[in-house]
Design brief:
This protein is α/β, with parallel strands linked by helices. The protein has 2 domains: 184 residues, 3-Layer(bba) Sandwich (FAD/NAD(P)-binding domain); 136 residues, FAD/NAD(P)-binding domain. The protein is built from 11 helices and 22 strands. Helix 1 runs parallel beside helix 10. It is globular, with a radius of gyration of 21 Å.
Length: 379
């Protein structure tokens, strides 16, 4: 029997599992192949929904689904915390046991580490996990005026366009509540423009200027003075704020660091085309876990999952694994409560940005409702 083990119950892990169960259904029924998904949580979180939750545009309960609902019944789900990957001996240790594998898929995602910026935990807010989104939602509901700073405190981070989206949505939120003239919004970015991609920067700056949103570049926070409400930067600036919305530093899973499979920040060295973990022919990495120069976004995990599942299935069937990933990424960008655009690109195609319009915004809202079909491998 061929054992496939997948670690991680996020979008990448569930998609690879479901795609493989579909491609290998005969082999599974005949007892020749087994798919095991190991997850430390029994529910999946729809992370893009956190952005809407802070403005009360999605409820917390809408953001979760049981893994038993999302996964094909032929997949063996283990709700356990993986503690170590012993790659040279082809097994995974968990808090409850050991799982040998012929093929391993690492879908361990990324995590925020706000504690790595001194003072951020005490002095800032964020929406990159549920607890943070709850706190920020309540704070925004109470906020009646002052200076809001949206500050990116580390690259890479999940959903690269989310800081832009929250900034535009803040504008519309306070305009809706007739408080926009009492709220100053400042967006900061670590490099010499407001986003890594130049054509996105051009459009964003145009809309920032139209909406009276201020921005600063070459802005690299190293400390938050929570008592005096100031951000201290590497460049020697001290930026005051009344409300700080931070995009905290991100790292890969502690499991990857403990297993010696990642770099110092826990990102897994991954071949950009085959998605195999460097140095191993039977281990793949998907989604946020990789060190690839692509967005840490759900669409990337989706496109990568297709390649990984096709190649593992081919190998089990005795066929050549010829599928390749070419860096495909596609991201919606909300530019307020009723305007949106999207961008797509790959390793060889420069980024293309669609003119912002209301139809794309409503397409994104519709996708929020349809996402669970994607996780099930249907859409």
């Amino acid at each position: 029997m061929k054992n496939i083990v997948i670690i991680g119950g996020g979008v990448g892990g569930t998609l690879v599992s479901n795609y493989l169960s579909h491609k290998l259904k005969e082999e599974i029924r005949e007892g020749k192949t087994k798919i095991t998904l190991i997850s430390d949580r029994d529910k999946q979180l729809y992370e893009p929904g956190l952005l809407y939750m802070i403005f009360n545009r999605m409820e917390e309960g809408e953001l979760f689904k049981e893994l038993t609902y999302l996964l094909d019944p032929m997949i063996d789900l283990k709700i356990e915390r993986a503690t170590k990957i012993v790659a040279d001996e082809n097994y995974v240790e968990t808090e409850k046991g050991r799982y040998d594998y012929d093929y391993l898929v690492i879908a361990t995602g990324s995590r925020i580490v706000p504690e790595e910026v001194p003072g951020l935990v005490e002095g800032g807010h964020w929406f990159y996990n549920v607890e943070g989104a709850r706190r920020l939602r309540d704070e925004l509901a109470r906020f009646k005026g002052g200076k809001i700073v949206v500050s990116i405190m580390g690259i890479p981070h999940k959903c690269p366009v989310a800081p832009i989206e929250v900034t535009f949505m803040l504008h519309d939120f306070f305009k809706l509540h007739r408080l926009r003239d009492k709220v100053e919004i400042l967006y900061t970015y670590p490099i010499n423009r407001v986003f890594t991609l130049e054509n996105v920067t051009e459009v964003v700056v145009e809309y920032f200027n139209e909406r009276g949103i201020k921005y600063k570049t070459f802005f690299n926070p190293i400390e938050v003075d929570a008592k005096n409400k100031k951000i201290i930067t590497l460049e020697g600036e001290e930026e005051p704020y009344d409300l700080l919305i931070a995009i905290p530093p991100h790292k890969g899973s502690q499991l990857i660091i403990d297993s010696g499979l990642g770099d110092r920040d826990g990102w897994v060295p991954t071949d950009r085309y085959t998605l195999k973990v460097e140095g191993y022919d039977n281990i793949y990495a998907v989604g946020d876990a990789t060190n690839l120069p692509v967005s840490k976004a759900g669409s990337v995990a989706h496109f990568e999952a297709e390649v990984i599942s096709e190649n593992i299935a081919a190998q089990i069937k005795g066929l050549p694994p010829t599928a390749r990933y070419f860096g495909k990424a596609m991201c919606f960008i909300e530019m307020g409560f009723d305007l949106g655009t999207y961008i797509w690109f790959d390793y060889e195609t420069p980024p293309k940005l669609v003119k912002p319009n209301k139809f794309i915004h409503w397409s994104k809202i519709a996708y929020n409702r349809l996402y669970w079909l994607t996780a099930r491998g249907v859409l």
